[in-house]
Amino acid sequence: MDRTDIYEHLANIYLDSSKKKKAKSKKNLRYKIIFVVTAFIFAIFSLSVINLSHRKTSINDEFAFVIQPDAVKINYNFNSIKKEVYSIDLNHLNLARFKALGFSVRKTDANDIVYLRVELISAFNEVSEVYIKDIRSRWKSFKVAFADFKKISEWSDMARISFIVEEWNTKNKHGIVYIDEIKFIR
Fold it and tell me: For the whole model, what pTM was predicted?
């Protein structure tokens, strides 16, 4: 073997092993990238689960049972009748585990003064009402505690909820009141 043969032989050995190392290095790099990405996804998932489990509840985190998903329109005109009523049949709903009634309300005429009567009726004909004041021309959320409905003693069998606009509780004799997001809150 002469010198050039030896150099060629050494070059082949070196280049072949170099190619193998590069291929092995690329394969290891792929595994490392896959591992890092998987570990990152797992860490984010774990942190989000831990964050959800240790989060303190606030007013916005309350559980609500929505009874009317769409906005309700009460169009009142007191020329012929003295009150307008929108009622929802609760069909003997058990509200014993809930603490409050929530809803949003607005009126169309900013100059009008409107008080809204909210009435709950149990299956035992216990009737109790609460008057909502400060109804604005922009949506405003209200939360009425069940304790404010003082005449109802048994919440396990409820018959109906009504929203009532009465002639003597408005400044103008005609207008529109919208009610939305009617729900029972725990």
Answer: 0.60
48 shares its domain with 71:
no
DSSP 172: S
Give the count of domains, the chain: 2
DSSP, residue by residue, 84-145: EEEEEEEEEE--TT--EEEEEEEES-TT--EEEEEEEEETT--EEEEEE----SS-EEEEEE
Residue numbers of the domain that contains 117: 64-185
Does one domain contain both 73 and 46?
Answer: no
- DSSP secondary structure, 139-151, as one string: -EEEEEEGGG-TT
Q: Same domain, yes or no, for 33 and 118?
A: no
Q: Is 140 exposed, middle or buried (0-12, 13-18, 19+ CB in 10 A)?
A: middle
Could you give the 3-state DSSP secondary structure of residue 173? coil
How far apart (Å, rounded) are the C-alpha atoms in residues 155 and 98? 9
Structure confidence by residue, pLDDT tens digits, 81-136: 678 889 999 999 999 999 999 999 999 988 889 999 999 999 999 999 999 998 99
